[in-house]
Structures are given as C-alpha cells and as structure tokens.
Write a structure and sequence with these properties.
The complex is a heterodimer of chains A (430) and B (297). Chain A has 15 helices and 13 strands. Chain A has helices at 38-42, 50-53, 62-79, 88-122, 130-149, 169-191, 195-199, 212-223, 287-293, 297-306, 310-333, 385-390, 400-405, 411-419, 425-428; strands at 2-7, 14-21, 24-32, 158-159, 162-163, 235-238, 248-251, 254-256, 263-266, 275-278, 353-361, 364-373, 376-383. In chain A, helix 4 packs antiparallel against helix 5, helix 4 packs antiparallel against helix 11 (310-333) and helix 6 (169-191) packs antiparallel against helix 11. In chain B, the strands form 5 sheets. In chain B, strands 2-1-3-7-11 form a 5-stranded parallel sheet, with helices on both faces. Chain B has a two-stranded antiparallel sheet with strand order 4-8. The longest helix of chain B has 12 residues, at 147-158. Classes of the chains: A alpha+beta (430), B alpha/beta (297).
C-alpha cells in the first residue's frame, strides 16, 4: 500500500510517499519542489557577491550561509598564499551572531513544530499560544545579533578578514542585556531552573529535575514511547568548528576525524534535492551529532540509554539552546572592542582560488565550495544539512530520516519523526 | 458581537522564507495578527491547510504574496502556484507583494530571467497582471521585507486609511525616502569623507565600498532593523535590496566614472553633485579624519 502526504510548514513543503507492509511503514520517498538554482545564479558573479546572494538560500539559516560563504573565500585566499588572520574580537563576534541564529531556530522549532505536532499526535491539544513564546525569544535574540550584524534575516556583515561592524561597549552592554533576557526565558519557561544548575546536569538519572516546557515535553515523549522510536544508523558527522563544536564522525562509540574531500553528492530520482554521503555511508548531522562528537556528558548519557531515538534527538536540540546561551554570554564578557574588526584590505585580494567553508548551521553541517577564475565565480557548490538527514540513501542503506521512519505504525507518527530532524525544505531546494 | 475580521492569506511561490521569518521577528506580532483571521501562513498555525488553499477553497480578503513567480513549473501538489495566486488575487480586496521577489523578481529571477518575475512587475516593467490588479496592489519590496513596514500597512488597511502610493504601488511613507536618510554616517557623506576600510564606524561607504543607500528607496535607517540597527550603521554597504534592479553585480565595490560614483543620489543631477562635492572636498575637517572614540590602552 502506498500513501502520499504533503508535509507543510517545514520551511517550505515536502511530499512523502509512504509504503506500508504488514501495517507499518516499510519505505518512504521524500520529494521536494522546484529547484531555485542559487549555485547557477552565482556563476560569473564577483566572488564576494556570494556574501549577499547565499544568505538568500534560506530565511531561517541565512546567517550560517553567510559564514560558510566568507569562510570559503578565506580558505581560498589562504590557498593562494594570503595570510588571513582574524582578531579574537572578530572571531568572537562571528561566533556570537551565529550562536544567536541557532538559538532562534531551535526555540522556534520547539514551540512551533515539536510541541504543537506532538500535541496533535497524542490528541491533547492545549489552548496555549506556543508560537508567542517562539516569537518572543526569536525577536529578543535576533535583536542581539543585529547589534553587530545590522539585521536578521539576510545580513552580509562578515567579510574576508573579519566583520564590518565596529561596536562600542555600549553596544556590547545592549547585546548582553538581550542575551540575559533570553537566558531568563530559558530558565523560567523552558527548563525551570537556573542556567548554571542546568548546565551542571551530566547524567540521565538527573533528567527528571528539568521542568518547564522542555521537562514536560520530555516526560510526555517518554510516556508516548518516543525513546523507542525514530532510531536510525546511529552514525554522526560534524564538519564545522566553533561555539564549542568539534568536527569528526562517530560510529558506535568511536569518534574519528573527517575530511570534506570524502563528501560525495549524487542526484536522486524524482527529487530536486541531491543526496550526500561520506565514503558512501549515511550520517546524521545536527545537534545530536554535535553533542555526541563533542562528548557532551548529558547527551552521551541519554544516548547510551536510548541511542539515536526521537527522544534523544529532540532533547539534544533543546539542550543546545542552553549551551549556546552560555557561550554567547561568555563571548560578550571577553570582547575587547579595541581590537581591529577587519584585518584585510577592503578589495578582492585574489582572482583565482578554490576554497571550502564549513560551518555548523542550526540543522547541522553546511559546506560551501567556491571556485574562482579570473575574478569571477566559475563554480559554486552548496551542501546543506538537510541533504545529509533526508536523502534516500543508496543501494546498501536507507537515508537517515527514512530509516528512522521505517516501522512506524501510522503516517502521523512517521511525520512527527520526520519533523524531529528539523527539516529545511527551502535549503534543500537551493 | 465582534466585527468580522479581514481574512489574511499568505501564499508562497519561489522563496527563501526570509519574509516569513522577518515578520515573525515583529515584537508585536500577535497583537497585529489579532486584527485578522489567519487563513493560511507558511509557518504559523492557520485555519486552512495548504491543500485547501491550493484547491481554492480558502476565503481571502487580504492576499500576501511571498516569492517570485514562474509562468509555469512552480507547482505544489500538482497545482501551478501562479494560477492559485491569480485566483485569490481576483477574490481579495487587497494584494500585498511582500519582499523583492514577489514585487520585482529579486534574487531568484536570476536562474531563469525570461520565465521568472514578480507578480505585477518584472524588474521595472509592468507584467500583464499589473493592469488587472493595480487598483488593489501594494508593493512592499525589500530582501527581506521589514516586519514593521508590513505591519503598518496591514493596520492601515484594517483602519480603512488611504495609503498614498507611488507609480510602482509602493507606500510613499515608506519608500519616498532613501536608505541614506538617517544613516549614522551622514556627516561623512556630507563632507565626502571615505571610509578607510571595513570594520570602522568612521567614513562613508558610498565612494569605494559599493553602498547604494543614497539612491535606494526604503526607510531602513528610519525604522531600524530588529528595532536596533541597519546594514550601513554596522559598516555593511546597502545593496539596494528594495530596488527592481536587485541584485546588481560586484556589490562590494562602487562603480565609478573617472573617480566619481556612476550612480548619483536619488534625483540629484550630476552637475549639482560635482559642485557640492568640489566645495566639500576643498576643506579638510579634522574631526572627520579622527577616530570618534579613543580607548586608553
């Protein structure tokens, strides 16, 4: 039996074709809509125009695209012998603004995707306006971002060698106050305890002490058996660094290094999205992958007990909000505004280069590759996190989300598992 | 009894979702939305499902369009989105094109310039749809849209106020000033003092770094972004994202003719600009050569 379902409100839409055997999902084909051709649009453009064009890949993770684009140019500059060094200030500001984008994403996903859809799945709809909470924290934390980046979405303030802004301590104080407001929200609404105490939790045995919306959600997910659902390959990959993240891949309990040269893209039948694999193997990317590879004690402990279940995956993302809020606040404490913002000249410094930029976006590793010839982009390649998580897989193994959905008893349950990956349709249709 | 609220339908075509997320950052989002019945929205809960919208079963008083349009091929559930947009455009009392893609074609037009355009405009040119729908059209270009520009226009519609528009149906109150208006670097523009590079609060970005603020329509420096800042304030050039020509090429460099910016400030004759520049440049003003703040080591 085959059933087609349109999944909407996932940064665009995707069509899922479910196959059922013996009453459970046996396979899923995921189809995305129109290809928008950003990579082609970039061809023949000036190399730095990518800093303006690529954020427009995605309305919710635009800042990560900016960071990947600037890192691709900087990597290309380095390859052509130019010294690219960022001041600690510029580095910290970039890290800060990217952390803010991840926070807004995760909180929106929690309140606008996970909680409402879980309520629908279990038939216990509340009358609460969850989206109001999402909008409140998103507005607060992107305001902190905009103090440095000018605006969100679609800033282009990261340029080769640093950032365009030149903040004062008054700006830093304003940003600090906003981060503290976001921390207050996290403490009082999301976890019901001080951030410091929350970050001290290092084992699944203390998980019950978490209250607030996250605590309630975890309890209900557990009651609904979500610790036994949504398992996939239990294989993780991270390419970006910074914000406390480290690159690497994890298979079972072994963590080892990664090299972007082994990332392979391939076309998929009946989908505009390209599949991506590492040495022909499927890997999950995103907050759970980041926590496993960075050896976060609490997530490791949760993973040890429940593996890569839906419950582990969901908690890893909400947990990252706490980690990032802490990092964001620290980044501002140590910011020395007297250091230079940008260490390179404002003109294009190399007309022929190849560069790769990797960054951890909200949904996982984002890779930009830029090939520049005679001062123009000859080829541009963007690999987005959703490609890792939502490909169909290959002859030997199913894709990550597909495998997680197999065995579901209903389309509703499978769709909820699908959404737990925090799908970004627009990125995938770049 | 509560008066019937205008029914708001937000329809997406070829887009990045940037206008959707920009609007979600409105600090008074739910107060604004309380004046409407939300029939469909790309991420917020709404009274209709997408398949009902595509089946033309949704009611619609105000149609918000996000994203560029393709004559064919932009299909959801087997339905051409342009056809769906035309259906609701006929039904609606007001059509708001939210963002530069929906208004002029924007970034995504670049992939297939002959087939992709805005709803009523193809860059500066009117499409066949303009004549049909211009009496109820409001253009709100910007990549992305500024959340407050959209909310103010929606509230003016609710209150039945007339909205003075320009020839491209843009509200004059928002687009008859330039991005340059209110820029924190204005003194440097007045005295023609160039910035010495990225990452400095001193100096104007118009002469070398590609800033299009003086000839780009929009109130980015009057109604600030995220209630706090703007591109030019943080030293990023304005890229002209509200204009029908967005995106131009080589965005981080100013195109010049014999050392003079090729594009003049909006409405300023070249001769007037050169005269004023000549006068301003003949003075060397110490304050504009120095750093604004000196920090002790």
């Amino acid at each position: 039996m085959k059933i087609e379902k349109l999944i909407e409100k996932i940064e665009g839409e995707a069509s899922l074709d479910f196959s059922f055997e013996a009453g459970v999902v046996s396979d899923v084909r995921i189809r995305f809509g129109l290809y928008r051709g950003i990579e082609q649009i970039l061809e023949k453009k000036a190399p730095r125009d990518a800093l303006v064009i690529t954020p427009r890949v995605c309305g919710i993770c635009n800042h990560a695209h900016l960071m990947a684009a600037v890192k691709a140019i900087e990597s290309g500059y380095r390859a052509s012998g130019i010294d690219v060094t960022l001041s600690p200030k510029a580095d910290a500001i970039r890290e800060f603004t990217l952390a803010c984008e991840l926070i807004q994403n995760h909180v929106k996903w929690l309140y606008m995707t996970v909680i409402p859809h879980f309520e629908s799945l279990t038939g216990k709809r509340s009358q609460e306006n969850h989206a109001l909470k999402a909008s409140y924290i998103s507005t607060t934390i992107t305001k902190a971002l905009a103090i440095f980046a000018g605006q969100w979405p679609h800033s282009s303030y990261a340029v080769p060698g640093g950032v365009t802004c030149d903040p004062t301590y008054v700006d830093v104080m304003q940003a600090t106050a906003l981060v503290e407001e976001a921390i207050r929200f996290f403490e009082q609404m999301m976890v019901g305890m001080p951030l410091e105490a929350y970050l001290g939790i290092d084992s699944v045995s203390q998980l019950h002490s978490i209250q607030g919306d996250v605590g309630r959600l975890m309890q209900r997910l557990g009651e609904a058996g979500m610790a036994e659902k949504g398992h996939s390959h239990d294989r993780f990959i991270v390419f970006g660094e910074g914000m406390g993240f480290v690159s690497g891949k994890a298979t079972a309990t072994t963590v080892s290094s990664v090299d972007v040269r082994y990332v392979e893209e391939s076309n998929q039948e009946d989908s505009t999205a390209k599949a991506v694999s590492y040495k022909q193997k499927q890997f999950e990317t995103g907050p759970l992958a980041r926590a496993i590879i960075a050896k976060n004690p609490l997530i490791k402990s949760l993973h040890k007990r429940y593996k890569d279940s839906l419950l582990t995956r969901v908690f890893a993302r909400t947990h990252e909000v706490g980690l990032l809020l802490h990092r964001a606040k620290e980044a501002l404490v140590h910011l020395d505004v007297t250091q230079p913002s940008c260490m390179l000249e404002s003109k294009l410094l190399s007309t022929d280069f190849e560069g790769v930029g990797t960054v951890e976006a909200a949904r996982g590793s984002l890779i930009h590759r830029s090939v520049v010839k005679s001062g123009r982009i000859a080829h541009y390649d963007i690999i987005v996190p959703t490609q890792w998580n939502l490909s169909h897989g290959n002859a030997s193994e199913k894709g990550v989300a597909v495998r997680a959905m197999i065995g579901s008893a209903s389309i509703e349950e499978a769709s909820f598992i699908f959404r737990s990956f925090d799908v970004c349709s627009v990125c995938t249709m770049q | 009894m509560e008066a019937l609220k205008p029914r708001l339908l937000w329809l997406q075509s070829i887009t990045c979702n940037g206008n959707t997320h920009s609007f979600l950052n409105h600090p008074d989002l739910f107060s604004i939305l309380s004046h409407f019945e939300l029939v469909y929205h790309p991420v917020l809960e709404s009274s209709c499902m997408l398949h009902e919208v595509l089946a033309r079963k949704a009611p619609c008083d105000i149609l918000i369009l996000e994203g560029a349009f393709s004559e064919q091929g932009m299909v959801k559930e087997g339905v051409e989105i342009l056809d769906v947009a035309l259906y609701y455009a006929n039904v609606a009392e007001h059509i708001v094109t939210a963002g530069t893609c929906a208004t002029f074609g924007g970034i995504f037009k670049g992939y297939d310039p002959d087939a992709i355009s805005g709803f009523a405009f193809d860059e500066e040119r009117q499409t066949a749809r303009f004549e049909r729908f211009s009496p109820k059209l409001i253009s709100l270009p910007g990549c992305p849209i500024h959340p407050k520009w959209l909310s103010y226009v929606l509230m003016m519609i609710v209150q039945g106020r007339s909205i003075p528009l320009d020839a491209m149906c843009r509200p004059q109150e928002l687009y008859n000033i330039t991005v340059h208006t209110g820029c924190s670097r204005n003194e440097y523009f007045e005295w023609k003092v160039d910035t010495k590079g990225f990452g400095l609060k001193e100096g104007c970005l118009f002469y070398e770094l590609g800033c299009q603020g003086p000839y780009t329509r929009g109130s980015c420096n009057k109604i600030l972004w995220n209630d706090t800042s703007s591109k030019t304030v943080v030293g990023t050039p304005c890229f002209g994202c509200t204009e029908p020509t967005f995106p131009k090429a080589v965005l981080f460099e100013t195109k010049t003719h014999m050392g003079i910016p090729a594009s003049m400030p909006l409405g300023v004759p070249r001769r007037a600009y050169l005269t004023a520049t000549g006068v301003a440049k003949s003075f060397k003003i110490k304050r504009f050569e120095e750093r604004i703040i000196t920090y002790e080591d």
